[in-house]
Amino acid sequence: AKAAGRGKHCFYEQSMHSEASDRQILENDLRQALDRGELWVAYQPIVRTTGEDVCGFEALVRWNHPARGPIGPDKFIPLAEECGMIEKIGTFVLRTAVKDAATWPDPVRIAVNLSPIQFNNPNIVETISAVLNEHKLRAGRLELEITEGVFLADNSATDETFANLKALGVRLALDDFGTGYSSLGYLKKAPFDKIKIDQSFVRGAASTGSRNSAIIRAIVSLAESLGMDTTAEGVETHDDLQLIRELGVSQVQGFIFGRPGDATAAAEYASSATIE
Ligand code: C2E
Ligand code: CA
Ligand code: CA
Ligand code: CA
């Protein structure tokens, strides 16, 4: 039994070790990914629930690893945040997204995810302003998607950053709403223009009983009282789309209208006012 225990211990250490070095390898690969042109930005349409006009696109970063194939942002964004690369990657996404959006018809917006680390950088407002100027994109066409992680950092400049971003004229969306611990407090604190209702309430809502509908209805009512738009994420089926419409959500994002695609696909989609 003792020998088996030792063997187990040894195996455990080995797997810990290989996990650590695997991470190290991935981290090194990520450090070079930008320079090697392995990162690119995909765009997913966000569509109005009334009429089906496209109101914008969300920029979603992609990594084509030369050996491993595509690696999802759920995996490499946290890694980038931990090892100090998120600023560089985030700025690349912002630049690329704003440049591409500048070729779309004027009211069509671009939504860019902002990591809390980027948000808390004292230069963030300056960076965003410079990128908008560089590509002549009207500030109102840029929407920044922020999670409550922004409020967790003990940063006394948070309020000021929000005020400066509002003054610049960009829009602010509270992402993944409903998944955190005290999202209501954050709505009070910051001047959001939009709430993005998390997929966990949306996907399958039409067939999972009335609880999800009740929650979505409450979020819509709250958003309306506060003068904010709502986007339901993760709409995949016609039943869910119909429910989302009935509940009064203003915009929809999900596979039913389009998966994230490249800049060419987005430009085509953006210039067609309606979709079938
Ligand atoms: P998110 O910001 O909540 O983005 C929405 C995610 O839901 C995207 O996954 C999108 O492809 C997926 N999605 C949209 N509609 C549907 C649907 O109908 N069904 C299903 N099953 N999924 C749907 P993705 O692209 O894998 O991104 C995952 C997360 O990675 C994002 O979640 C965001 O938190 C992060 N991320 C992506 N790009 C960036 C970026 O440029 N910067 C930062 N900081 N984070 C990013
Ligand atoms: Ca997002
Ligand atoms: Ca989200
Ligand atoms: Ca998410």
UniProtKB/TrEMBL annotation:
Residues of the full protein shown: 506 to 781 of 893
Protein name: EAL domain-containing protein
Origin species: Sphingomonas alba
Domain EAL: 23-274
Lineage top rank: taxon: Bacteria
Leader sequence residues: none
